[in-house]
Amino acid sequence: MLHIFQPFTPRGVKQRQRNARLAFLVMLLWAALPCFAATTEQLPEQDLLQLRRAVETARGFSDRYAAEVWLVGMDSRLKKFIPDRAIRLHLLQEIYVQAKQANLSPQLVLAVIEVESGFDHYAVSYAGAQGLMQVMPFWKRDIGTTQDNLIDINTNLRYGCTILSHYLKVEKSDLIKALARYNGSVGQTWYPERVILAWERNWYVN
């Protein structure tokens, strides 16, 4: 099993101040999944029903309380990207499950999706990368089947999480290098910085 929840020491980055900031952020990211304070938001009855259904059908959580805490905490953060609560909750469930199966932090996956597609699962890049996590079609040949639909949310998340987990293993848990590989910008740090800053800005909870 891939073990990535450990302190990180970046190597080969020229600027010392940038190194220190990135190392600090990554160590925070690999901390145990944070607990969220109970929400004080007064939700409409329809929204409460949607949340209850999401908790009841949540997969991958240790218990219902863990599901409720995580879903409520991330739902409020995802709202500015996806206005529809039912769609948000379904997406969060799938992100959590696929991330955990790949031994990734769900918050890291949220940050990658924010940078890659802005949560538009129909997104297609000029290079042909598709879906939420902007997966290149050649991966279907390597780790799936040619019939796989990378625009499909669950398929895209499964591919993206599997690929990122693979690169973390290749780079011996070096998140900066693994993210650069994921983006195809090996030897550069601009993409890892964008992902880590997105996580810090929108997905981290102390």
Strand content: under 5%
**CATH-defined topology:** Lysozyme
Q: Give the number of domains.
A: 1
Poorly predicted regions are 1-14, 28-40
Could you name the CATH class? Mainly Alpha
Main beta sheet strand tally, sense and closure: none
Q: Provide mean pLDDT, rounded.
A: 79
Oligomer: single chain
Q: What best-fitting shape do the alpha-carbon axes yield? A: globular
The secondary-structure class comes to: mainly alpha
Describe, in plain words, how this protein is organized in 3D.
- It contains 9 helices and no strands.
- By secondary structure, the protein is mainly alpha-helical.
- The chain has helices at 16-29, 45-56, 64-78, 85-101, 106-117, 138-143, 153-170, 175-183, 190-203.
- The radius of gyration is 17 Å and the shape is globular.
- The longest helix is centred in the C-terminal third of the chain and has 18 residues, at 153-170.
- The protein has a single domain, classed as Lysozyme, CATH 1.10.530.
- α2 packs parallel to α4 and α7 crosses α8 (175-183).
Offer a concise description of the structure.
The protein has 206 residues and is mainly alpha-helical.
Short key terms for the protein model shown above:
Lysozyme; 9 helices
Itemize the secondary structure elements and their pairings:
Layout: H1 16-29, H2 45-56, H3 64-78, H4 85-101, H5 106-117, H6 138-143, H7 153-170, H8 175-183, H9 190-203
Helix pairs in contact: 1-9, 2-3, 2-4, 3-4, 4-7, 5-9, 7-8, 8-9
